[in-house]
Design goal:
The chain contains 10 helices and 8 strands. The chain is of the alpha/beta class. Helix 5 links the parallel strand 6 and strand 7. The longest helix is centred in the first third of the chain and has 16 residues.
Amino acid sequence: MICAVFHMQQEFACLTIVISLFPSREKYCAPQILQRFITSKIPGCGVPTQGIPSRLHCYTDSMKAFGEDLQLLNTTYIDLVLIHFPPLGGCTSDNCPLMQEQWAVLEEVYKSKQARAIGVSNYCQECLECILKNATVTPAVNQVMHHVGMGPDPLKIRDFCAQHGIVVEAYSPLGSGSKELISGNLTTDIGKKYNKSSPEVAIKWIVQQGLPLATKASNPEYLREDIDMWSWNLTAADMQTLDAATKPFGAPSFMCF
């Protein structure tokens, strides 16, 4: 199912085509009417260059960032709010209190109905284990990098999330523009069997695993290809071949080591 998402991340907004398999898809993506599904990301605490700089005021600054997004979007609620990434240093015991503090902000906006769903992005298993220790609301989503070359369950993050009822959503399905998935031999050769492009094969591999994913493009033809994912299927043999690929390299998060 295709939903249009207005994705606000600090100083810019972009229209993203999201291939969504969430149960609420009928509500937001009815065939007759395509509604806006608005998401927002709050940066992780203690990341001076691109996040919330202070480790001392994580709760207050995170709540302020959420309020600014509401004001900028001119809305009273956001459909899905994510913590963009863990604190600088990743999923360490020293950072656990910060992650718990920031997750408490999302729980508060969820309970006050200012967010319809809350989740995280770039969270490794250790990060999730930290916030789940005292969470009263389980993250609905963990958005992580996932593409051909990483295997079907890198670092077993999908298995862990499934055990806790957390949906894994893929980003960077083309490996951040890797040539391997744009014009590489593996995906190109498989695509020829179906009269599909290399990127279409890479994206279909994710969709056929039952994963929602976020992808974007400015070229209308590429957007059309992204949307045309349900008129064809990869064979089991081709899926296994793509499962076994080891290039391009990737990790679920730049915070996962």
